[in-house]
Design brief:
With about 170 residues, the protein is mainly alpha-helical. The protein has 5 helices and 3 strands; from the N terminus they run αβααββαα.
Length: about 170
């Protein structure tokens, strides 16, 4: 895929993600939360420019660092998102000011890694960024689903009516 097409895909996903993160979103409403990350991973790994073949060790090290930043960003994004349950049982999330800080720090670290790559003369393209964005989205979505206990079976016990057993003081 051409560099221009990669740039358009990356920009579209980032705009979609940033625009949606500060709007309340129902958790678990879309059972295909993994589709966008899967498409990004597919596009990234099939691109021959994922690794700079002239500087393989440096390129792999930068990619690994990028993925670590992406994973940390996904964890931070999920942990700083406000999660709540409505009266009808639906679960929602919304980004907070701390979420914006996580994004700012993550982008700053990524810019620093890109600068390091330029200093080392390592070619870095869109595929590495797509792979990192996929990791961020996958981790964030998975952790939000876990925080909200989406998919947990109640076995016929209504969540609002359930109270843990209490022992009476003697």
């Amino acid at each position: 895929m051409s560099g221009l097409a990669n740039a358009v895909v990356i920009c579209a996903v980032v705009v979609l993600v940033v625009a949606r993160q500060f709007k309340a979103q129902q958790i678990g409403a879309d059972r295909r939360w993994w589709v966008i990350p899967a498409v990004l991973v597919f596009m990234a790994v099939r691109d021959p420019d994922l690794i700079d073949h002239h500087h393989q060790a440096s390129s792999v090290a930068l990619l690994a660092a990028e993925l670590l930043v992406a994973l940390a960003m996904g964890v931070g994004w999920a942990r700083t998102s406000h999660v709540w349950t409505e009266a009808d049982g639906t679960q929602w999330s919304k980004g907070t000011k701390a979420t914006a800080l996580v994004w700012a720090v993550g982008i700053g670290l990524r810019v620093g890694l890109f600068g390091l790559g330029v200093a080392l003369d390592v070619h870095q393209g869109g595929p590495a960024l797509m792979l990192a964005l996929a990791a961020t989205l996958l981790v964030r979505s998975g952790l939000l689903m876990q925080r909200a206990n989406v998919g947990r079976r109640t076995y016929g016990v209504a969540g609002a009516a359930y109270e843990p057993l209490r022992k009476d003081p003697v």
